[in-house]
């Protein structure tokens, strides 16, 4: 038997910072920092963007941040793991490669910075494209030899026109895919029966019905379970007695690269329409996209789509003694989809509530065929 000193946990695929990152190297810092500022702000309307550059000789004491009128300043020490902890919250990192390396490089041929580029030869590990700055005609022989295969080459004027779109399309294509998590590990104490096994319509129990809806939407679907049974499509709860919060964190522990659409089995009026709304109106730049009833003050955490950055946020809340996913959503950057028809938010946690749902279904509520 192979002995493992530490339990197996899936790791996110990150560069020095984020999952997708580009360093701009070989031209002036003025140009590079201009792109980082302008393009970073433009792309931030669709995704979370981090920019990294040098201090250019200006040193700030400690670390400063501001929330409203409250100003924080700390003297925290920082290392490469802190870079990744910060970067893991972002979809794209744009880096001034004259100062710091990135997982992929956009290389500029610029006589003014020729020596800077050559000094950073060892950092050119994954050249995405080469840009010939004004007046430059050829790629240096040493760079051709170093890169090997023929890279894509742009003239500077063409890069100015197309660069932002190229980076955007590349990053959007690599936004996290969505998987579904059906919560079936609850104790169902109030109902007296396993809520996931209850049948409300068409002979399907709730676990199978919700899974079918998700699979018809093209989502690979998993069941959260309190005890493993050996089924391939189950995720064992690794946070004992922490309820839905533990189940969601366990899903991210199994696959931290994906976004997770979470559905509970005590909401039997959730139908294809609601799941379709979540997927169609997903905002990957937020921590999550969640349903909220028009008359309700807070979003529903168990009809919600959590982005990978939610993983760390969930664990942070657990670390300060909060195991309520709704509290996480209320206090985070979340997109809310407001439902005027609040039927999908109807809970069935007790026999009386189940009877009420069955009565609604007999009337054909929410487009469902009458029983």
Count of helical stretches: 11
Radius of gyration: 25 Å
Distance N to C terminus: 54 Å
- The shape, in one word, is elongated
- Helix/strand order, N-terminal first: EHEEEHEEHEHEHEEEHEEHEHEEHHEH
CATH secondary-structure class of the largest domain: Alpha Beta
Proportion in helices:
25-40%
Q: What is the number of beta strands?
A: 17
- What is the domain total for the residues? 2
Low-confidence stretches: none
Question: How would you write the strand order of the largest sheet?
Answer: 13-12-9-14-16-15-17
In the CATH scheme, what's the topology name of the largest domain?
A: Spore Coat Polysaccharide Biosynthesis Protein SpsA, Chain A
From the 3D coordinates, which CATH architecture of the largest domain would you assign? Alpha-Beta Complex
CATH homologous superfamily of the largest domain - what is it? Spore Coat Polysaccharide Biosynthesis Protein SpsA, Chain A
Question: What percentage of amino acids are in beta strands?
Answer: 15-25%
Overall mean pLDDT: 91
Give the structural class: alpha/beta
């Amino acid at each position: 038997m192979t002995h493992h000193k530490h339990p197996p946990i899936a790791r996110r695929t990150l560069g020095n910072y984020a999952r997708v990152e580009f360093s701009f190297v070989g031209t002036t810092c003025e140009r590079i920092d201009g792109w980082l500022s302008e393009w970073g702000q433009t792309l931030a309307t669709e995704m979370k963007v981090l920019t990294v550059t040098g201090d250019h000789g200006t040193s700030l004491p400690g670390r400063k941040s501001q929330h409203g009128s409250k100003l924080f300043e700390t003297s925290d020490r920082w290392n490469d793991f802190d870079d990744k902890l910060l970067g893991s919250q972002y979809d794209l990192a744009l880096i001034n490669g004259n100062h710091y390396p990135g997982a992929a490089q956009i290389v500029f041929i610029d006589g003014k910075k020729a020596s800077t580029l050559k000094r950073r030869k060892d950092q050119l590990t994954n050249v995405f494209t080469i840009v010939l700055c004004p007046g430059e005609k050829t790629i240096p022989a040493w760079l051709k030899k170093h890169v090997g295969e023929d890279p894509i080459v742009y003239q500077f004027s063409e890069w100015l026109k197309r660069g932002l779109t190229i980076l955007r399309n590349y990053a959007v294509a690599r936004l996290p895919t969505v998987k579904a998590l059906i919560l079936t590990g609850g104790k169902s104490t109030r109902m007296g029966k396993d809520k996931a096994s209850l049948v409300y319509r068409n002979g399907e129990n709730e676990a199978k019905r919700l899974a079918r809806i998700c699979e018809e939407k093209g989502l690979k679907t998993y069941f959260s379970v309190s005890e493993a049974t050996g089924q391939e499509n189950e995720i064992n709860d690794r946070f004992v007695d922490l309820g839905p919060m533990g189940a969601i964190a366990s899903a991210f522990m199994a696959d931290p690269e994906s976004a997770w659409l979470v559905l509970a089995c005590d909401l039997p009026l959730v139908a294809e329409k609601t799941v379709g709304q979540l997927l169609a109106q997903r905002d990957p730049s937020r921590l999550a996209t969640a349903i909220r009833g028009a008359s309700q003050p807070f979003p529903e955490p168990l009809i919600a789509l959590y982005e990978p950055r939610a993983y760390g946020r969930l664990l942070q809340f657990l670390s300060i003694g909060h195991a309520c996913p709704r509290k996480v959503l209320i206090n985070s950057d979340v997109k809310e989809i407001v439902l005027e028809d609040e039927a999908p938010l109807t809970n069935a946690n007790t026999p009386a509530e189940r009877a009420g749902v069955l009565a609604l279904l007999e009337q054909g509520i929410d487009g469902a065929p009458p029983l």
